[in-house]
What we know:
2 domains, Arc Repressor Mutant, subunit A, alpha+beta, three-stranded antiparallel beta sheet, homodimer, DNA-binding, 234 residues
Amino acid sequence: MTEARPDFRQGPGITRVAALLGDPSRAAMAEALMSGMALTANELAQEAGIAASTASGHLAQLLHEGLLSVTPRGRHRYYRIAGPEVASALEGLMGLVEAKGPSRCRPGPHDPALRHARSCYDHLAGALAVQMHDSLAARGLLRPGPEGLVLSETGASALAPLLPGVRLLAGRQCLDWSERRMHLAGPLGRALLLALLDQGWARRGQGREIALTRREEAGFAALFPLPQGSGAVW
Amino acid sequence: MTEARPDFRQGPGITRVAALLGDPSRAAMAEALMSGMALTANELAQEAGIAASTASGHLAQLLHEGLLSVTPRGRHRYYRIAGPEVASALEGLMGLVEAKGPSRCRPGPHDPALRHARSCYDHLAGALAVQMHDSLAARGLLRPGPEGLVLSETGASALAPLLPGVRLLAGRQCLDWSERRMHLAGPLGRALLLALLDQGWARRGQGREIALTRREEAGFAALFPLPQGSGAVW
DNA sequence: CCGGTGCTTCGGTGAGGGCCGAAGCATTCC
DNA sequence: GGAATGCTTCGGCCCTCACCGAAGCACCGG
Lengths: 234, 234
């Protein structure tokens, strides 16, 4: 016998958030914002294929629930994902639809460029991100700490050309939904992606794509070499 | 006239899953199953406060979408969370509502026992889980590999009393939503929790709670000592 | 100033979907 | 065997909520 129900007919806390993400239009907006770029209300409306007025209502809800943040700039209002927790939750849901297999094979987001390198909210994802993680891990430059993964001192010096004043930023492992392997997220992951972009090791392409020229690709490989056993050796 | 839209009004992939979790009744069921225990359809109906027929429909949807799995046992049907990816997605959503702060302070799930030690789908969570992770990390027994975190060889031998035949199981770091710190999830996390329970280092309490007697608490502390700097030192 | 844009609020409309009770199968217990 | 229990399907009710267009504010330009 479960005694008197303490639960006020409203469901657990995740209900509100999940319901917001469970609407096609709002989900489309959220996914568009996962590129890490800030988008205006009109752009998001177009992305979702709805009227501006409808989009406005959706955005107000997402804002009120803390999933998005907004920065007014002139007569535009730029929306973006509110924070890493939101990105994590969205990643989790995305990983879920990937894991459910080829039941619904969307051709769009699966193009090779995105599998190779893309931004995942604020950090690098795709094959190159996995290589970055594996290279650091295999060389012992990464170790777990209370707040997540941190660079060892030799690791910090190895990345000096990329991040001159790298501090002991905490990162975390994030399951890459195209590679099914771990890559680096968290503050450390963000710092690495920003450094790659700021210092010309890579550039933003269409949407979430991260583009590298052949020369940049070589530079990346030199910075993040893979010893020998690349795969699931250990 | 909106019928000429090339986009099939269905939204991105996360929509379906999020919409499922966005219903109060389904969310309540999912959260109840996060204890890791398999529950019958009737128990879940009662948990959600709905009729058995309604619950049956919900469970069919969750099953069809791959969020739950079912094992018929006699005249009962035991439902459980389908896999780690589902648990991760739910954790992400839970972390989100925690991060949004005291806007809705639910007293129930916040009792001290749950903050101290609870099961998070299949692994240990709470203060003790953080201690376990930090102890292993601080002693250098954990290191990142391609598939996640693995125990070093000295780590495997240190845990021999707990896991005699421990293999190189991959774990991953998971943000604890009550402690705001990392704990161990993944296959390694699951194996550790199972070993703790099977070998009498701890027992299941009410719901997700993990209970330890004073003696068991001491044994745990001996197995997972914290060197000295416990907190956010590095 | 006065158009021109970006964004929001406001009613009214419509459909998708959650809810229940009753009836239909399946399984186990006596 | 028959009765009780667990679960599912079916039909019908009702309410929430996404949607749009038009009108109302803000902000920028000439």
